[in-house]
Write a structure and sequence with these properties.
Elements: H1 20-44, H2 48-52, H3 62-80, H4 87-105, H5 132-149, H6 155-174, H7 184-187, H8 191-207, H9 212-217, H10 222-250, H11 256-313, E1 315-319, E2 325-328, H12 330-336, H13 340-343, H14 358-369, E3 374-381, E4 387-398, E5 404-413, H15 415-467, H16 473-501, E6 509-512, H17 513-523, H18 525-530, E7 534-537, E8 542-545, H19 547-563, E9 572-579, E10 583-590, H20 622-632, E11 637-642, E12 646-654, H21 659-666
Parallel strand pairs: 7-9
Antiparallel strand pairs: 1-2, 1-5, 3-4, 4-5, 6-8, 9-10, 10-12, 11-12
This protein binds adenosine-5'-diphosphate (ADP).
Length: about 675
């Protein structure tokens, strides 16, 4: 993976106080600058203890101290300033490389004693000159910075080499090897030089998340875990044993030969035991992994079957993050009438019908780009220009960084269903339009009829008052009929107007039906008393509805129950309510004349009456009002009746008022 794809800052911000590495880097850079300076001062003032730290050990040369100060500065600059000036690296290289060259080509180097003269080192050990390992390590460290800034992966190997050189040098001090027992290359590297190099190379490695050390030390993969487990065997055990054996040899307790043989035997023994334990654990992990893989293969087979099945019935396509089709199955090709070769590589717009607006696609893209599944209906255009509808699910797939990798679309052809739906919708629209027109017509006619009717009624009244005495009996009868007819017509028109206005500009609210019926009872008390009616009301529920209309509904049913009473029988009306899953069924039962089964469906139509006015007065509008009110609530009304025994009117009121009705009532 390219470095630029990794999501971490190359430089640690100075204000990121929480970062341990940031603080460590700051400490190391200041420490190197400070101690480098201190050692340079020690050279100037001849403070010998500071120069070699251990008696007769190699001294840290002036140039080495100078380069450490510069290295400290460079580390500071690398972590805490954005500048990419390589001047410090150039100076370090300017001193380290000539020193190396002097060793290789064996010439005197003026640089060695240019700042102070080294009188401590014997003449045959190159006084004033840093060890070749030191010069080499500085060259590598100086080269590290420009390499790293250019994101060259090999940069970390430079640090690794520096770390290994300084580690070997440090270990030789730890095991107290004499100068003559060491490799010449590192022989004169001072102990503090070794420690400084180890620290600097470690900090630089560990602060870069993608460095070899970081991946092994901070990493969570098998390799990293294995590395940590090997540390006791590879580092702690050898150091401990070397220390013990060397001590015993120095004290002449054992001979070097004995030490070597025992060292080998003990190391092999512990090495084998430890490796055996590690291997056992690794085997167990591997076995688990194999089991997982087998499970995965099994799952893959299942998925494969699933895919094959899906391929048969659904249109499947895949697109890259930019909307380009990368895969289209046979069903997709068949329905879109494109060849696979025409679809693959093309943008998904190829099937765009132009039916949906920008907002539709904006919503679609926002959903899937946010990693969510989009589900909806899309109208697409086939190659031959025909349209088809699909029920579509678009599923985004992310890579392990959470970036969208591709989209999978699964579509089913719903053209048939959609066409039927559209037809139904068109029919409903037409119906709505016709109803609206009818409503308007009824309103206008009833409203406009009102005025001439009023004139007619008034004129007939005047006629009766002023001219009745001048008419003979027939004339009076005719005048009476005319007057009655105009009154009836006026009532009819009023009722029609009322019917039309039902539910208009009224809001839906919570209704305590019990209270509503008690109010109604008071309103019609006179009627109940004069007809000697017995009205029984069961406990009633609370519902959601249009209160005025519901009152009118109950009123019409109760008054009908009283009106259509058998002669000589005391009217009895019983109101009850029954709960179903999501609606209430109300019943208004009477003991009246009853309705023939054949006529039961007619009575809810407007102006439909089963009796003449002489027997039962009325306009034939009451039950049609009831029907309209119940339907406004999304319910149904019907009647069950036995002729000569009584009728029961039943209607339902759902818990939820249809939204369309609610909106219409406000329009
Ligand atoms: P109106 O009561 O003004 O005639 P309605 O629309 O209320 O008009 O009723 C229509 C017809 O239904 C009535 O004329 C009557 O024949 C019949 N009807 C209504 N309610 C009852 C009832 N409770 N019992 C018997 N017949 C009824």
């Amino acid at each position: 993976m390219a470095l630029k794809d990794m999501n971490f800052p190359l430089r640690i911000k100075i204000n990121d106080k929480l970062s341990l590495l940031s603080r460590t880097s700051l400490f190391v850079s200041v420490f190197l600058m400070g101690t480098g300076g201190l050692i340079m001062i020690s050279w100037i003032f001849d403070m010998r203890d500071m120069l070699s730290l251990i008696p007769f050990g190699a001294t840290m040369k002036f140039n080495t101290a100078l380069l450490f100060s510069l290295l400290g500065g460079r580390i500071y600059q690398f972590f805490f300033t954005a500048k990419k000036i390589e001047i410090i690296s150039v100076i370090i290289l300017g001193i380290a490389l000539p020193t190396l060259a002097a060793y290789i080509f064996d010439f005197d180097l003026v640089l060695d004693n240019i700042f102070v003269t080294d009188t401590l080192t014997p003449a045959n050990s190159f006084p004033g000159r840093m060890s070749p390992a030191t010069a080499f390590s500085f060259s590598l460290l100086a080269a590290y910075f420009p390499f790293r800034s250019r994101e060259i992966k090999g940069a970390f190997y430079l640090l690794l080499v520096v770390f290994l050189i300084s580690l070997i040098s440090f270990l030789s001090y730890l095991l107290q090897l004499g100068l003559n027992q060491r490799v010449f290359f590192i022989a004169s590297m001072a102990i503090h030089t070794s420690i400084f190099f180890m620290t600097a190379s470690l900090v630089l490695q560990l602060s870069a998340e993608d460095s070899i050390f970081s991946l092994v030390i901070w990493g969570k993969l098998k390799g990293a875990r294995f590395f940590w487990k090997l540390i006791p065997l590879l580092i702690i055990l050898p150091i401990f044993m070397s220390y013990c054996f060397l001590y015993a040899i120095h004290k002449e307790i054992i001979s070097p030969e004995f030490a070597i043989v025992n060292y080998t035997v003990i190391f092999i023994f512990f090495g084998l035991v430890y490796s055996f334990i590690l291997a056992k654990n690794l085997n167990r992990e591997d076995a688990m992994q194999i089991e997982l893989l087998e499970g995965l293969e099994n799952q893959n087979t299942k998925l494969d079957h699933f895919k094959k099945g899906l391929d048969q019935i659904a249109m499947i396509s895949k697109t890259d993050p930019y909307g380009r089709i990368t895969y289209a199955n046979q069903t997709f090709c068949e329905i879109s009438k494109y060849l696979e070769s025409e679809l693959v590589g093309a943008n998904h717009n190829i099937v765009n019908s132009g039916h949906h607006d920008k907002a539709f696609f904006h919503d679609l893209w926002t959903t899937i780009k946010n990693g969510k599944v989009w589900i909806g209906e899309i109208k697409n255009k086939a190659k031959d220009g025909s349209f088809y509808w699909t029920q579509t699910a678009i599923i985004p797939f992310m890579d392990h960084h959470g970036k969208i990798e591709e989209y999978l679309s699964i579509r089913s052809d719903i053209t048939q269903k959609k066409m039927e739906e559209l037809e139904e919708k068109a029919e409903a629209e037409e119906m709505k339009y016709k109803n609206k027109e009818l409503e308007q017509f009824t309103y206008i006619s009833s409203h406009d009829l009102q005025e001439p009717l009023n004139t007619m009624t008034n004129m007939t009244k005047l006629m009766v008052k002023n001219y009745a005495s001048q008419l003979d009996e027939d004339g009076k009868k005719i005048l009476h009929y005319t007057s009655e007819a105009s009154k009836r017509m006026s009532n009819l028109v009023k009722a029609l107007l009322e019917y039309n206005l039902l539910g208009k500009n009224r809001g839906v609210s919570d209704i305590e039906v019990g209270d509503l019926l008690n109010d109604l009872k008071l309103d019609i008390q006179d009627k109940l008393t004069s007809t000697n009616t017995q009205l029984k009301i069961d406990p009633m529920p609370d519902i959601l509805g249009f209160p005025t209309e519901l009152k009118l509904l109950f009123q019409n049913l109760i008054l009908n129950g009283i009106k259509f009473q058998r002669p000589g029988v005391k009217p009895q009306i019983y109101i009850s309510a029954e709960r179903s899953e999501d609606f209430w069924t109300f019943k208004v039962a009477d003991n009246g004349i009853g309705i023939k089964e054949d006529h039961q469906h007619r009575i809810f139509q407007i102006f439909q009456r089963l009796h003449n006015r002489e027997n039962y007065d009325g306009s034939g509008i009451g039950l049609s009002q009831c029907k309209k009110i119940v339907e406004m609530h999304g319910g149904k009304i019907w009647v069950t009746s036995t002729l000569g025994e009584g009728s029961t009117f039943l209607f339902t009121i759902p818990d939820q008022i249809p939204r369309s009705v609610e909106q219409m009532s406000k329009s």
